[in-house]
UniProtKB/TrEMBL annotation:
This is Deoxyribonuclease TATDN1. GO terms for cellular component: cytosol. Keywords: Hydrolase, Metal-binding, Nuclease. The keyword Cytoplasm does not apply. A divalent metal cation 2 binds at H136, H161. It comes from Iris pallida. A divalent metal cation 1 binds at E99, D210. GO terms for molecular function: 3'-5'-DNA exonuclease activity; metal ion binding.
C-alpha cells in the first residue's frame, strides 16, 4: 500500500518518504518493519537499511507457515531464515524474531497443526541469536500460552502484538514475566476492548500501529479519546500532504497513545509516552538502556 498498490491496482505513486517524514514530525523515534514470510523478511531488511531509524524482524506469520513445506525442505527454509536473521543482526537491523505465533481465525490459510509446528521451530531463532519475539495470537490463547510456557527459557522477552482478546486472555499473557501486550487500533474497537485495556498495567504494555492496517476509525469506541488528526484523502486523490483514508501510518501511533491515556484516565500523556517507549526499548533496544545507565554511573548520578 505504501507503494500505492491496493488489491493489485496502482492508485498512486509510492509515498514512503512522505509517510516517514510525517512519522518523524509526529515524534516517532524508530520504526520496526515487520516480516511475515522469508521473502517479506528480506524486503523488510532492505527497507530498514535505508534509514538509521528503521529496524526490522525476521520470521514467518502463522497464516504463512505452509511456506516451510512448499519446496519439500522445511529445514532448508529454516536455515535460510536463520542466515537472514544473522545477517540482519550483524548489520544492527534485525531486532526480533517474528511475526510468528498462532491464528485460529484464519485456518483456511494454514491448518492449526502446521502453525503450531513452525511457531515452535522459530523459538530456535530467538535462542540462537538471543533475540526477543514479536508474536501474533488470534483466537488461540490456550495453545499459544502452552507453547510459550514450554519455550519460556528460549527467548529473553517478547510482545504479543495487536491484542484483541478477552480479559481471560489478557491475564494469561500477563502471567509471563518477560511478555508485553501490544495495543493498536484493532485493540480499541469496542467498549469491551476498552474494559480489557484498563486491566493491562502500563509497565507491561506497548503501543503500535500495525500500519497499513488497524487504524482507529470513527466507529471505534476508542475514537472518543483521539485528539490528533491529519488531513486525509481517498487513495485515488492522493497527495503527499495528506494521509490516505483507510490506510494506517506510523504517525498515527500518537492516536493510540491518546486512547490509552484517555481510557486509563492518565493526564500526563507525555510521561505515559515515555514509559511505553521505555518498555519498547527494554525489549528491542536494550543496549540503549545499558548505555544510558552506564552514562549515569560514569557521571556519578546513579541509575534511576
Amino acid at each position: 500500500m505504501f507503494k500505492g498498490i491496493y488489491n493489485g491496482r496502482q492508485c498512486h505513486v509510492a509515498d514512503i518518504p512522505a509517510v516517514l517524514a510525517r512519522a518523524w514530525s509526529a515524534g516517532v523515534d524508530r520504526i520496526v518493519v515487520t516480516g511475515g514470510s522469508l521473502e517479506e523478511s528480506r524486503e523488510a531488511l532492505a527497507i530498514a537499511e535505508t534509514d538509521g531509524r528503521l529496524f526490522c524482524t525476521v520470521g514467518v506469520h502463522p497464516t504463512r507457515c505452509k511456506e516451510f513445506e512448499e519446496n519439500g525442505d522445511p529445514e532448508g527454509h529454516f536455515r535460510a531464515l536463520l542466515a537472514l536473521a544473522r545477517e540482519g543482526v550483524q548489520k544492527g537491523k534485525v531486532v526480533a524474531v517474528g511475526e510468528c505465533g498462532l491464528d485460529y481465525d484464519r485456518l483456511h490459510f494454514c491448518p492449526a497443526d502446521i502453525q503450531r509446528k513452525y511457531f515452535e521451530m522459530q523459538f530456535e531463532l530467538a535462542e540462537t541469536l538471543k533475540l526477543p519475539m514479536f508474536l501474533h495470537m488470534r483466537a488461540a490463547a490456550e495453545d499459544f500460552c502452552n507453547i510459550l510456557a514450554q519455550n519460556r527459557n528460549r527467548f529473553r522477552a517478547g510482545v504479543s502484538h495487536s491484542f484483541t482478546g478477552s480479559a481471560e486472555d489478557r491475564d494469561k499473557l500477563l502471567s509471563f514475566d518477560n511478555l508485553f501486550i501490544g495495543i493498536n487500533g484493532c485493540s480499541l474497537k469496542t467498549s469491551e476492548n476498552l474494559e480489557v485495556l484498563k486491566g493491562i498495567p502500563t509497565e507491561k504494555m506497548m503501543i503500535e500501529t500495525d500500519s497499513p492496517y488497524c487504524d482507529i476509525r470513527n466507529t471505534h469506541a476508542g475514537m472518543q479519546f483521539v485528539k490528533s488528526v491529519w488531513p486525509s484523502k481517498k487513495k485515488e486523490k492522493h497527495d503527499n500532504d495528506s494521509i490516505v483514508k483507510g490506510r494506517n501510518e506510523p504517525c498515527c501511533v500518537r492516536q493510540v497513545l491518546e486512547v490509552v491515556a484517555g481510557c486509563k484516565g492518565i493526564g500526563d500523556i507525555e510521561q505515559l509516552g515515555k514509559e511505553l517507549y521505555h518498555n519498547t526499548c527494554r525489549v528491542f533496544f536494550p543496549h540503549d538502556l545499558d548505555s544510558a545507565a552506564n552514562a549515569l554511573l560514569e557521571s556519578g548520578h546513579g541509575v534511576p
